[in-house]
Description:
The chain has helices at residues 16-27, 37-43, 48-56, 62-79, 89-96, 108-117, 140-150, 164-173, 187-191, 201-210, and strands at residues 3-6, 13-14, 84-85, 100-107, 127-130, 157-161, 176-180, 197-198. It is α/β, with parallel strands linked by helices. A 6-stranded parallel β-sheet has the order 5-4-1-6-7-8. A two-stranded antiparallel ribbon has the order 2-3.
Amino acid sequence: MKHIVWDWNGTLLDDLGLVVDATNASLALFGAGPVTADEHRRDFIRPITAYYEGVIGRPISAAEFENLDREFHAAYNAGAPHLGLTFGVPDLLAGYGPHQSLLSMWFHKDLVPAVSRHGLTDYFRRVDGLRATVGGGHKAPLLKEHLAEMGLDPADVVLIGDSVDDADAAAAVGAGAVLYSGGFTHVDKLRAVGVPVVDTLEDAVKLVRSGLTTA
């Protein structure tokens, strides 16, 4: 059976609304925004500095990004305890068994208690978040380390996420990918990547079970 690496934000966790609110709080520091959810899904890219530069309309310094990132996470963390999971998540995780783990670009110190709060910890062989103090980069290096820590062959792994960066990370290490259209990225951008795109997480798991994923 293929091992699934789940993404958290926008995939298992239904947090697009809060992400947009927190993004607007950070953009307000520069007199930019607000952006709508549709605009965020259309324009969001990694590294996140590139996204902010596109919205603000000029390059931003490392110090400016640190301020933006700090404001974003302050606003996000204030609302995070009220977030819910994407429809059907607990049953999907319970039904797939022990061959799954969680890798997020959210800070590890915040991720672990959030996963526990939602009652999901026991479903995952491993939970990893970002251990740096400032985020915004690409997932590929983290995925490589995540799989190495579990001793997994990337050919035996499928990453389920909601962003182009998730697919790029999977391709970089030689894993498969399925992208979920209900998260942070417009479905047209996801379809352009060339990996399977689904409208529900249930369909994502069905694809993994059937072997109809890329690797």
